[in-house]
Amino acid sequence: MNQELWMGAALFVVASSITPGPNNTMLMASGVRFGFRRTFVHLMGVQLGFGFMLLSVGMGLHTVLAQFEGFYDVVRVAGAAYMVWIAWKLASAKPHQDDLQHAEQPMGFWAAVAFQWVNPKAWVMAVSFMSTFPPPQAGLAQIAPLVLLFVALGWPCSASWAGFGSAMRAYLQDPRRLRVFNVCMAFALLASLYPMLKA
């Protein structure tokens, strides 16, 4: 890959990772509810889970799966159903008290890893990226650096969403403000489904 392709790949990573989507919306909501430290495991699950998906797609997984008619339709429907459930949980969440907050748990590492496989935006990003930047017939030696680039640049983008959520915790101690925030995040999560389901 030449310098122009590397620069293009880096811009793709930043543009796709910093924009709103299911992962970032959920990370910001988790940052508000649990703080950055407790959201860190969720954040790592997102990044490493997507990195593994990206590697798998780059090594040809999407070509194999494309042979199964309707596979991506099933992923879109399953992902949409899960995100609607998450949106409902956000919208209906009651303002937490300290004891309730500690009793609840943020999304765990493996749950965040597994979520990538039903996240329509993750599939679109992975297939688009690996269809554009690696050379034809690329092997592990060419795919792995691109995966590392995506994780290295994508991590701070996603971390900024969790950090922003954590920074808003003091402001959102007011139950009414928190309620409005949760409903807005639920609508944002549902809104992110439209372009992905339309694709």
Please give a handful of descriptors for the protein shown:
199 residues, mainly alpha, 10 helices
Write structural notes for this entry.
- The protein has 199 residues and is an all-alpha fold.
- It has one domain.
- Helix content is 79%, strand content 0%.
- The protein has helices at residues 3-18, 22-58, 61-65, 71-92, 98-103, 109-116, 120-132, 140-167, 175-191, 193-198.
- The protein starts with a helix and ends with a helix.
- The relative contact order is 0.22.
Structural class: mainly alpha
CA radius of gyration is 18 Å
Q: Shape from CA axes?
A: globular
Secondary structure tally: strands: 0
Helix tally equals: 10
Q: Give the biggest sheet.
A: none
**How large a portion of the residues is in β-strands, by DSSP E?**
under 5%
Give the topology.
Elements: H1 3-18, H2 22-58, H3 61-65, H4 71-92, H5 98-103, H6 109-116, H7 120-132, H8 140-167, H9 175-191, H10 193-198
